[in-house]
Amino acid sequence: MSTGINRSRNSSVSTELSFRGNKKSSPRLPSINFKSTKDALRGAIAQSLDAASKALVELRNLRDDHQAGEVDCSLVDYLRKKMLALLMMLDAMNISSVSWIMFSCCYPRRTVCSSQRVLDLSSRCPREDMVSVTGPISISVLTSGALGAGRNAANYDIQIGGRSSNVVSVFDKNVISSLGNSKWFARVDMPHGNVPYHHINVNKAITGVKDPHIPISATTAKAAGVAGKVLIVVNRISPYLTVFALVYNGYQLGKSVIVDLNNGTTRNTLKEVARIVISLVGGIGGSVVGASEGTRLFPGVGTLVGGVAGSIAGGAGGVYVLDPLLESALDDLKLDILEVECTECQKVFECRKYEIGDVKKCEACRTSDDLPRIPELKEMVMPVWLKIRSKL
Questions:
Q1: Which of 215, 294, 311, 390 is the most buried (most CB within 10 A)?
Q2: Which of 174, 228, 180, 179 is nearest to 200 (CA)?
Q3: CA pair distance 238, 36, nearest whole angstrom
Q4: How buried is residue 130: exposed, middle or buried, by Cβ count under 10 Å (0-12/13-18/19+)?
Q5: SS3 state of residue 118
Q6: Closest CA to 327 of 153, 11, 115, 15
Q7: What is d(CA 330, CA 76) in angstroms, rounded to the nearest whole number?
Q8: What sections of 94-134 are H helices per DSSP?
Q9: Closest CA to 51 of 76, 22, 77, 27
Q10: pLDDT attached to residue 370
């Protein structure tokens, strides 16, 4: 930062002139090629801080030059937006912003949003640039994963060991014996009796198919035992995963409702509801298909693994495919998108009201102060909670 502060007025003016010669280019940060994620994160943050501090110095110097009538104001606006974007990312410092920092260090001019549109950072305000690429898919993975784990816990029990030859057994809760116990569905056994090799047993009373004694290797049998232990843990925590997924989805939906209420729109809530529905429907369908395929490949353990994997693939895959299509359809309908005349330069611009509110200035004229402040969810909930608590 000290080298940036000592930069002379002449170097600032020459920098501006070089920008003026090629306005479509911007200062490119060094590319990142680190050996570990930890080093990459540190390097990304360091580069972002350095870029922000240099931009701050340039902004101060060029402001003075502009007041003296020596330079154009376009670079000042560019540097201000670039600096604010970087500082906002560092201030938030969550998973999405860290991912954005690392991406923008390699590609500082462009990023892809959820609808696959390319955004130009030099012409959009920081708040519009902070678009999470992985957010909806990550939430869908949580939702559909909890759904798949819950379906497994509701339908199957797993037992490690038992008889001396048993490795892992899977019991079907939907098929009850005369004693009131769940019947075993599939079992991995070590060599015994007339079967001198590791194998999978399948219960004819459930499948209607004679036990084929599917041969497997000793390594596969051992891996099935390890997978069984993991699945037992997943079954135990599935109720907590389900509750957490419900609460988190409710939180995300609440945030979207607050943004829409503040902006006078409906698009964010509509998209959030659509994402939840897609995650649930895709998760259920994927769980059924995955469990069926897992049963075909490895009855028992494969059934449960396939159910969870299929649920995640169905829910997250559905959101990945349909979210951009929904975004494109809403754009075609111009839902909460306005054509507004800038109050300063009288230029007509596209105002995405659901993102930035009902602003009256174009990207070139507005600052972050022109954007409406969106209250946090806790700011809305806490007064209600305190009022309820006082009545108790």
A1: 311
A2: 228
A3: 32
A4: middle
A5: strand
A6: 115
A7: 35
A8: 95-106, 126-129
A9: 27
A10: 81
Q: Token pair of 87, please?
A: 């500082």
pLDDT at 254: 87
The whole-number pLDDT of residue 184 equals 93
Q: What is the DSSP string of 256-296?
A: HHHHHHHHT--HHHHHHHHHHHHHHHHHHHHHHHHHHHHHH
> What torsion do the CA atoms of 274, 277, 279, 283 make, to the nearest 10 degrees?
-160
Mean pLDDT, 10 residues at a time, the chain of 392 residues: 42 39 40 46 59 62 59 53 55 41 38 35 36 68 94 95 90 90 93 91 90 93 95 95 93 88 91 94 95 94 96 94 92 92 91 89 86 71 73 72
Strands 199-202 and 166-176: unpaired
User: Which secondary structure element, helix H or strand E, spans residue 156, and what is its range?
Assistant: strand 156-160
d(CA 316, CA 276): 11
Two structure tokens written together for 46: 């360091």
108 near 26, Cβ under 8 Å?
yes
Q: With contact defined as beta carbons under 8 Å apart, do 144 and 307 qualify?
A: no
Provide the greatest CA pair distance for the chain: 97
**Residue 300: strand, helix, or coil:** coil
Q: Which of 200, 155, 230, 362 is nearest to 297 (CA)?
A: 200
Strand partners, 215: 199
C-alpha–C-alpha distance, residues 108 and 44, integer Å: 12
Could you tell me if 151 and 287 are in contact, meaning their C-beta atoms sit under 8 angstroms apart? yes
Q: What is the pTM of this model?
A: 0.63
Residue type (1 letter), 272: E
